Amino acid sequence: AGIVDEQVNASGLRQHLTRIAQRPLWIRQVGRAIDSEEELLQLATMHARTNDVRTEWVTRHEISDRRVIVALSKRGMPIRSGNAGEIETYLDMGYYDGARELPNVLMAARTGHYDLPEGTGWLLGNRWIGPPGTYVEHDSRAKSQLTAGFVAEGDEEEWKRVFRDVTSKNPIARWLSFSAFASFLLRVVKHRSLILHHHSRSGAGKTALMKLAMSAIGVAFRNGLFHVEHAERMNQATLMTDRLLTALDLGLIAPSER
């Protein structure tokens, strides 16, 4: 990484490249956090031993203060106190000179419903479902473990067959299972969250039915972990909206309204 100094001498304009970092450092793409309206930059550098490219999303604030810039060294950037001032100038010049040419990304930390100028969409873990030509990606800065279960896995037709078979048994199964789909539409129809209390004797199939309902939004159980169930715990539920909240022997969940 370096800064080009323009100097004028007797022979005319001459450019001189000053090296300011031990490894290449550049702005790979720019972005905007929908939830916080922060301007973001994705910095890229090359690992000192392997030359593998590693990236890190940062805010405009983080590259606008040399005291904050130094802290990026903990995240693998080739920055130290001795070159923080030059790095600040270099990234500021790079942003304003290249922002219009760089790829622009929309990012979001919250799973759920989003209104874009092009229309309504939903971010489900790392998957964006929205109008053609739009894309929103999960904000990696959130470092959330809640996206592990929000993936499509297995045979879709087989899942539909099982879902139809179970929901055809009785009204309770239908009501609880289809509530998973209704949860995505609550904000669209401007309706508050609802609570379904399913109680029955032990061994009546409460857990199996809950897992089936939750499978509509992802993999409920994998490698010994209840991915979706754990995502619904009280101290994490505020990250979620427009979703089916379930609790299995976890006590009352009361997510704040957003």
DSSP, total strands:
10
Major sheet, described briefly?
5 strands, mixed
Number of helices: 7
Amino- and carboxy-terminal Cα gap: 43 Å
Strand content: 15-25%
Structural class designation: alpha+beta
Percent in helix: 10-25%
Radius of gyration: 24 Å
What is the H-and-E element order? EEEEEHHEEEEEHHHHH
Average predicted local confidence, pLDDT:
76
What are the segments in which pLDDT stays under 50 over at least 5 consecutive residues? 2-6, 227-232, 234-241, 248-258
Task: For the largest sheet, list the strands in their spatial order.
Answer: 5-4-3-6-10
**Principal-axis shape:** elongated
Give a written overview of the molecule.
The protein has 258 residues and is of the alpha+beta class. The protein has 7 helices and 10 strands. The protein has helices spanning 66-69, 84-98, 156-167, 171-182, 206-214, 227-231, 234-237; strands at 2-9, 12-19, 25-33, 39-46, 53-59, 104-108, 112-116, 119-124, 127-129, 136-138. The chain has a 5-stranded mixed β-sheet with strand order 5-4-3-6-10, with helices on one face. Strands 7-8-9 form a 3-stranded antiparallel β-sheet, with no helix packed on it. It has a two-stranded antiparallel sheet with strand order 1-2. Helix 4 runs parallel beside helix 5 (206-214). The radius of gyration is 24 Å and the shape is elongated. The two termini are 43 Å apart.
Question: How would you concisely characterize the structure shown here?
Answer:
By secondary structure, this protein is of the alpha+beta class. 24% of the residues lie in helices and 24% in strands. The chain is built from seven helices and ten strands.
